[in-house]
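Holo model, nicotinamide-adenine-dinucleotide. Inputs:
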Amino acid sequence: MFRQIEEARLSDVHLKYDEASGLKAVIAIHSTRRGPALGGCRIIPYSSTEDAVTDAIRLAESMSYKAALAGLDLGGGKSVIMEPEGPYDREELFRAFGQFIEELGGRYITAMDSGSKVSDMDIIASQTQHVSCTSSSGNPAPSTALGVYKGIQAVLKAEPAFDSSLKDMRVAVQGLGNVGYALCQLLHQDGARLIVTDIDEEKVQQCVEELGATAVSAEEIYSVPCDIFSPCGLGGILNEDTIDELQCNAVAGSANNQLLTPHCGHLLYEKGILYAPDYLINAGGLIFVAMTHQGKSQNEINHRINAIEETLLKVFRHELLHRTPSSLVADHMAETQLYGE
Ligand code: NAD
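Output:
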């Protein structure tokens, strides 16, 4: 465990067992150098404590990178709750988890993640103020979509094959959930031609009817000729096979952890596809959550989300200048902010 902590340059890891509620939780704090560590709470079944700790450590590190590149006064952290196997009292579990967060005195602020809901955040809020994404804070997805839209503006400026306008640009969107659909609406307003897929037929149908999109199957989305491929569904979808299929000039979408392995960033680069690093282009949601928690105005929040465009342009300029894949450039920029030169 200490080797993992050392490799991820983590600050600290906290484990909690609460007998009364059955809570088994891990909070991993990657860094508090720039401010308190913010990151979601995942609640899923884990087969072992080691798996839970590994997950928390890995996720905390990427939150630090995301917050640093978004220019937020925050560090990165993540918590995981090992979901009990048998029946359990969810309210009691999250109340105990709220107390756990409170004991850390504000070093860690929690938020929603896989498996957790707004109602869980409300229960945590009864025990501690170090929680976001409660029913009074609002949905981050429109902000994430806005950030991706701004990121796509950077892609238009950086890719020589593109005009500066989205008019008639073919954008293939994978996943029409909270973020994907909101993004489609923004792109449609600018006259983009949408090509879409989702495993949920109803969402596809709605996008076809309301936004004039062309529907393709879940498999076809990789090989369909387009200008920009926008993954907004699952992570890990860019692997050797799918990258081989791509017929686009750029990849720019909201999904987390799009590259199956770091090597996939090189593959995209070698294929001449401009890649907008996921944790940079999808930071709008984090910006919304963090700044809402800090009591900032919508204007200030939008200003920060708009800055994603400029940061991304900086990454693309470095990519060109140093002939280094954008994924590596972004990591390096985040590391410089976190640890210095
Ligand atoms: P969501 O669950 O609302 O939407 C995901 C959509 O993808 C669903 O409609 C689902 O049916 C579809 N989907 C799943 N598997 C698919 C497949 N194989 N092919 C096509 N479609 C598929 O999630 P969301 O909140 O819209 O988030 C989308 C992505 O963006 C996720 O990877 C998420 O981690 C990431 N993200 C979201 C936010 C946010 O603010 N919600 C912030 C940052 C990153």
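The chain is about 45% helix and 15% strand. The longest helix spans residues 298-322.
Archived with the compound record.
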